[in-house]
Amino acid sequence: MPAFFSPLADPAIWTLAPSQPVTIPDGLRYGGYSAPGVRATIALSDDVIVPATGILRQATAGPNVFVEVQVNPFPIRAVATALQGGLPTFYLVFDDALGLTFADGDGAAGGERLRSASQVTIVAVRQDRILREPALWASQIGDAIVAGGGDATSWQPFAAALVTALTAGDSSPVYVYDHSGALLESATVEVLFGATAPGNGHTITMDPADGGDLQRAVQRLNAVPGSPIPIANLWGGGETSFRLRPVATSARLVRLEDGLSAATELQVTRLERSVMLTNLDSWFGPQTAAPVGGQPLPRYTAGNVFTPLVNGLEFFDDLCVALRDAQDANGGFHLAGWSMFPRTRLTRLPLGNDPHAILDLTLATEAIKDDNVPLTLEQAVKLIGDAGGACRFLPAEFIQILPGQTMTETQALVTYALLTGILIFNNLGFDFARSDAGGIVLMMAIWFGATIYIATILDSDGDPVEPNKDALEILSAATNAALSDSVAVLAPYPARVEDNVPPPNLGDFPLSFLSGVIRNFGIYHQKFGVVKSPAGMIGYAGGIDVNPNRLDGVDHLARSPYHDVHARVEGNAVRDLAVSFDDRWSNEGTGGAAFAPPAFDPTLAPGTDIVQVARTYFAPAVNAPARGLPYAPNGDRAIADTMLAAIAEAREYIYIEDQYLAPPQVYRDALVAKVAAREIRQLIIVNDGVADQPFGDIVRQGFVTDLLNADAGAGIVRVGYPRRRFTSTDNEIRSDSGRLLLMVDLPASAGPLPTIFLGPPSRIPALPFWVSVGGEMIYVYDESIVFNIEPDQMTALTCERGPSTHFVRGGASPVGTFTREHARGTPATVVDVNNIYVHAKLMVVDDIFVGIGSANLNNRGLFYDGEINVFSVPESLRNSPRNPALQLRRRLWAEMIDLPEAMAAPLLTDPLASGPLFDRSPFAGNRFLPLDAQPPNLMLGWTTGDGAFMTILQGLGFAIGTVDQPMIYEQIVDPASRTV
Question: Which DSSP string do the residues of 633-662 spell out, in sequence order?
Fold first, then answer.
C-alpha cells in the first residue's frame, strides 16, 4: 500500500496557486503557526482525499474548517525514517464543513475519500516545525517514498503539479524564514541580479504583512509612489535567478531545498527559493576579555565538529581513545580541572563490582589491553611520556591561606565546608550527593570526631591539606623523567572577597572569623582539555570532572546515579581551548606548556558547526587592578552574554539542565520575562531534587516560583528532577539487607506521627529509605521516639505515608501513595528510588543552539569563578542533517523520560509535541518529576532549616540566624564581581 496519496483525486483538473500564509487554529497540533499553503480550486467539485493513514481532527477558525491528518508512522516506517525533519501533519482547509462526517480521534486510511469540494487550501508541517512551502515539502515526501522503497505513483502527480504551478510565472514566491523555520516577519536584504554593478542590486526591507514572501515585499515596495526599487517582481525580464545578500555582516543563510549554507550570499532560483536566515551575532555574545598584549578569542569560528558526550562513561571512553592516539613523540595532553583523581579507572569497566576501581601503575599495566588505551589518568601520562610526548595539568587549588598565617582546627573545618564541599567527602569515601538523614549522622560523627578528621585535613604544620594534593604529586611523578618542567601545578584563583560586589564588611561574620587567614573563596571551576596527536588536536569541555562518581551511563545503574554532559570539539575552535589553557599555564605554571596552541587555519573545516569558546573570569576591585588576570584583566562575562543572547533569540523552546538553578538577577529577569510575554511555547528545566548549594534552595525556590507565576497556568514551564527506576537496596554489606518483616500491625490511617516497626534490626539499611509493604510505598527517614517493647527484635521508625510521601505529582500538587492496612508479618522490601544527581550545565534552544560547559546558573558561574563553556549553532541551522542541538536534545529527553534512544528518536523529533511526555507517571517509566514531588523530610545536604551545613556551623559554636544566612550566601557561597 502506498505511504502517501495525492489529496486531490485528479490534480490535473485543479487550478493551483500559492495562498496567503495559513494560521492553524489553537487546539490542533501546530496551532498558532502560520504556514505557506497551496490553494486548489475547480469549477464544479471533485474529491479531496485523505493523504496518508492517520488520525483526523477538526477545528474552525472564522469561516474556515480545518481538517488535521496526523500521519501514523508505523505502517510506513522506512519512508518516515528517510524523511528528514520527521513526518508531516496535513491540514486541509475548507470553506465549510459539508460532507465531513468523522469525529475527532477517528482513524482514516490513506487514499480514502474525505469529501467533495470546489476549493481547498493544503498545508503540511513536519515534526521539525520548519514551515516549508508546498512545492518543497511535496517533492521531499516524494523523494522519501522512493528512498524508503515505497510506491510513489499515488503521490507523484500531485507533487509534480505543485512544482509546475508554484514555480512558474513572474509572481512565484520566494520564502524567507527565521532560525526556527517560521516565516520571517522583518529583515533587510539585498537582491542582486547578474554581475555586481550599479543598478543590479536592490535593498528590500520586509514587513510582517509580506508573510515571509520576498516577492510580495518587492511588489509592495514597487507599488509605493516614488518607489525605492524599480522592479515590479523578482522574475520579470526573464530572470531565472538572483543572489540574496543579508545586510547584517554576521548572517548565516541556508537554502532549504539542498541545505547549502553561506555567510555572505546565496543564489535563489525558481526551484530553490526557500532561504533560512539568522544573525549569528544575535546568538553569540561578544568576547569581553581584553588580554594584556594579546588578542581576545574570536567571537566564533565556523567549520568545526561539535559532538556532545552524554554522561561520564561515554566521555571517558572517548577521551581515553584520544589519549591512546597521543602516545607519540609529538603528542600531548593539556587538562585543566576542578578535581582530578589520577588513579581512578576511567574506561573499560568490568560488569558488576570492580575490585580494582583504583589502579596504581602496576595494576593498570597488568590490566591494559594490546591497543594501549590507558585506563587511568596516571597511566595516560606515563604512556605519552614514554613515547616522547608531554602532558600538563592544572588542578584547582582550593585552600589559599594568607602569608604567614595558620588555621585553627575550627577554621579548617569551616573552610573545608565552604570550599571543598562535595570533593572532601569524595576523598573520604562518601558521596555527598547521597547525603540524607542517615548521611548527616555519619558526617556529624566525622566532623565532631575531630581527632580523627582533623588529621585528614591539617598537616604537621597546622596547614590544611589541599584536596588536589594527590593529583599534583601522582601526575608529576608519572611523566617522562627526562623532562624538567612542571607537569602539574595547583592553580590558585586570585579573586578575594574584596572583589565582591557588593564588597563585604570584614568585621562581620563569617569574615571576622576567617578573614585573618583566608580571603580567597573563588576557584577555577573549568573542566577542559586538549589532546594532541599526529592527526591533529581535539578539544574537550563541559561539566565532567575526572572523578570516580562521574562513572555512570544512561541507564544510571551506578550506586549513586549521576548525570552530566561534555563536548568534543574539532576544528579551529580547538585553538581557542588551547589558548585558554596556555593563558593559564603561562600565568600559573613553570616552564613551557606541553605544546603551543595551533595557528588559526582558514582551510581547516572538518565539519559544519559554528562554535564559540566562552569564559567567565572575575573582575578585580577598582582599587586593586593588580589582582586581575593578565588574560582577562577586567574580567570576562562572555558565557553570561551568550546565554542571555540565546534566551532573547528563543522562539519555540528552551531546555536547561543545571546543578544549582540559582541564577543572577539579569538571567532570572530575562527568562521570567520570556515566559510572561509568551515569546516561547515551552521551557523545561532539569535540576537536582535537592539544592546542594548552602542556602541556595531559597534562591532556587524563588526563581521557580517566579517562573510558575509568569506561566500562570499556560503549561509553558516544567521544572523538575530525575529519579531512577526502582532497584533493590544496596546489599554491599549483607546479602539480606532490606528483606524485612512488618513487626506490628499497621493501620490504614497514617496518623499524626506515623511509625512503622520493622525487623530484624540487623537487616535495616541506613536511613532514609523507601520500603514497600504489601504494595504500599512508605518513606522511612528517622528513628522514632515511640516506645519499642522489643528493641532486640524490631526497630521503631518514623515514616511518611499516603499524601505526605509526595511520591508523584498529581495535577497541580504532589500526591502520595495509597495507604492501606497491613498485618504483622507482612513482608517489607526496601527499594532504592535514588534521585539522579544532575551536574550538567547545559542549554538547548529551538533545536539550533546548544551550550555545554562548567558554568552553573549562579553568580559564581556567570560572574566570578573561572569557567569555560562551548556554544554551537550548525551552519545549516535547523535544517542541518547533523544537527548537534537536535540530536543532543533527543538523547537527553529519552534519558529523562526513560525511553530507549533508538525508539524515542522519532517520538521526540517534534520538541513541542513531545514535551508533555515529561508529564507521564513514574509508574509508566518516567524519570522526570516536578521538584515538589518528593518527601518533605529529605534532610539532604545544604538546606536552610535542617541541613548539614547549618548543623556543622551551629555545632561548632556559631549562633547563625536568618540575618546571617543571606550574608553567608552572598559573600562566600555565591559571590559576584563587578563584571555584572
Answer: TT-EEHHHHHHHHHHHH-SSEEEEE-SS--
- Does residue 689 fall inside a structural domain? no
Q: In angstroms, rounded to a whole number, what is the distance separating the alpha carbons of residues 223 and 225? A: 6
Domain co-membership, 50 together with 189: no
Q: Which residues contact 962 (CB under 8 A, 6 or more apart)?
A: none
Order across the sheet with 261-262: list the strands. 175-177, 274-279, 251-255, 261-262
Last residue of a domain, one of 832, 849, 864: 832
How sure is the predictor about 951, in pLDDT bands with cuts at 50, 70 and 90?
low
**3-state SS class at 541:** strand
Shared domain check, 264 and 246: yes
Q: Is the pLDDT of residue 426 over 60?
A: no
pLDDT at residue 960, rounded to an integer: 55
- Are residue 155 and residue 227 in the same domain, yes or no? no
Sheet bearing 15-18, strands edge to edge: 15-18, 38-49, 113-126, 88-94, 64-71, 54-61, 107-108
Cis amide linkage into residue 722, ω under 30° from 0? no
- Whether pLDDT at 539 is above 60: yes
Closest CA to 278 of 252, 256, 257, 250: 252
Helix pair 665-676, 638-649: axis angle to 10 deg: 0
Position 238, amino acid: G
Within this chain, do residues 24 and 130 fall inside the same structural domain, yes or no? yes
Mean pLDDT, the chain, integer:
89
Whether 903 maps to a domain, the answer reads no
User: Is the entire prediction scored with pTM above 0.85?
Assistant: yes
The domain tally of the chain equals 4
Q: What is the pLDDT of residue 295?
A: 85
DSSP 769: E
Distance of alpha carbon 268 from alpha carbon 240, whole angstroms: 9
The residue from 586, 614, 642 where one domain ends is 614
741 & 824 share domain: yes
Nearest to 334 by CA among 597, 612, 615: 597
- Whether residue 85 lies inside any domain: the answer is yes
Q: Which of 194-198, 494-498, 685-689 is the least confident region?
A: 194-198
Domain residues for 742? 727-832
Confidence at 943, pLDDT banded by 50, 70, 90: very low
pLDDT at 424 over 60: no
The CATH number covering residue 112 comes to 2.70.70
Residues 599 and 583 occupy one common structural domain: yes
What is d(CA 125, CA 183) in angstroms, rounded to the nearest whole number? Answer: 13
Residue 948 domain flag = no
What confidence tens digit (pLDDT) does each residue in 445-491 have? Answer: 444 444 445 566 677 666 778 889 999 999 988 875 444 567 999 99
Per-residue pLDDT tens over the stretch 962-973: 557 788 888 988
